[in-house]
Structures are given as structure tokens and as C-alpha cells.
Amino acid sequence: MQRARGIGGLLFLWVLGCAASAPTITHRRSGATTSLEGLRGKVVVVNFWAEWCKPCINEIPDIARVTDAFGPDVLFLPVYYRADASSPKLSQWIETTPAYFRDRVCFANSGFLSHYDVTRIPHTYVYGKDGRVVGDYVGAISGERLIQMRAAIAMALHH
Fold it and tell me: Which stretches does DSSP call E strand in the chain?
């Protein structure tokens, strides 16, 4: 019984910690912090990535190209898969990447990441202007999946 209370207490503290940190993402370059709620009115493409994940890195140019083609009402947010992104090595690596990625990189706090399964990356979500998920893509996006994502974005823009 003592062990059950201990686990329950740890679970309570974890839930309390997640609730205490509002789910936010921070733009790496500008330092601007926002939430998905703060981006309502735009179509938002959230892509979870890691520097060691080749499929993640390989899909980003296509996602950037597709989202850019829709104009300023569509935001592409490549979000690092971990809350602890303070590594100088990661920062140096990001600086070597193309501008279409480097200038958009975002980091999320644990409150934001707790809403997602970031153990399965790449993982991309398309949110409509109303904040609802209109596309959920586990794994690399290319070929037919890229066409599907483009269609989800187009549909979200017109609703």
C-alpha cells in the first residue's frame, strides 16, 4: 500500500508540474513565446523533429515549400522533440542548416510536449484556423502524404 501511495504522489506531482507550466512554444531566433491558442486564425503546421532523425531532416524542405506556397496565413513550426534544448552542440548544428529551417526552429516547454507522443518522430500536425487538428501524420511526409498534407492545409484555409 505504501508503494501505491508513493507512485500516486509522484503522478500527482507530475500532473501538477505539467499544469503549472502553460503549454508554450518559443521561436529560437526571436525568443517570442506563444501557444497554439495564441495562433488561432492561422493554419498551423507543427512538425516534431530531432537532429539525429534522418526522416525528420529529409522531410523539412518539402514541408517548408508547401507551407510557404500558401502565404502568411499558414505557419510552419518545426518544434524540437525535447524540452531541454539548451545544448551548445544542438545550437551549433542548427546554425549549419538552411534558413528555411534555421529561421523557424521552435522549442517547446514540457507543458506543450506533454500533449504529444514525441517518441514517434517525425510527427506532423496540421491545425485549422479554429485550433482543431485537420491532419495528423506519423512518419516521414513525402509523395502521396505530402499531397494529402497540402490538401488538409487548403481545406483548413477555406473553413
Answer: 25-27, 33-34, 43-49, 74-80, 106-108, 123-127, 133-138
Give me the domain span that covers residue 46: 22-157
- What is the maximum alpha-carbon separation in the chain? 59
Cell of 3: 508503494
Domain presence at residue 86: yes
Position 14 pLDDT exceeds 90: no
47 in a domain, yes or no? yes
- How far lies 137's CA from each of 100, 113, 122, 125, 141, in Å? 21, 16, 8, 6, 7
Give the tens place of pLDDT for each residue, 72-124: 999 999 999 998 888 899 999 999 999 999 999 999 999 999 999 999 999 99
Please give the Cα distance from 116 to 25 (Å, whole number): 13
pTM for the whole structure = 0.84
